[in-house]
UniProtKB/TrEMBL annotation:
The chain crosses the membrane at residues 65-89. The keyword Chaperone does not apply. Keywords: Membrane, Transmembrane, Transmembrane helix. Pfam families: DUF4577 (PF15145). This is LSME1 protein. InterPro entries: DUF4577 (IPR028099).
């Protein structure tokens, strides 16, 4: 009994593998380096190749757009959080001012009560009563 060979004779795919690796490295390089000024150059370069390069280019463009959108969202969120913290601090300062005014008014009312009691005592002692 002869065993069938497990080896399959494929055409020379070694060269295609090298091209695939080089293309993948180029795409990775485009992904890692995406300055704003070179975006136009990347767009022109993507449309000169075949459909596989167009898809890779649109993926890079989408990823750059996502990254820029993410950064802008973080900046807006930071601004909103800073504004909320500012409002909290301002509210606390106003509450401190109001509470100090209330304490001062409470002291004034107590002093007025004492003066009223003294006047009533003086009037009662002097005998001026209706």
């Amino acid at each position: 009994m002869e065993r069938p060979s497990l080896e399959i004779n494929l055409p020379d795919t070694h060269e295609e593998g090298k091209l695939y690796v080089v293309d993948s490295l180029n795409n990775l390089n485009k992904l890692n380096v995406c300055p704003d000024g070179s975006q136009h150059a990347l767009d022109e370069e993507e449309y000169t190749g075949d459909t596989g390069e167009n898809t890779a280019g649109s993926n890079v463009r989408n990823q750059c757009l996502f990254f820029v959108t993410f950064i802008l969202t973080l900046i807006v969120s930071l601004a909103l959080v800073s504004f909320v913290i500012f409002l909290i601090i301002q509210t606390r300062n106003k509450m401190d001012q109001i509470s100090s005014r209330l304490i001062s008014e409470k002291k004034n009312i107590e002093e007025l009560k004492k003066m009223n009691n003294m006047i009533l005592k003086h009037l009662n002692q002097s005998g001026i009563k209706k």
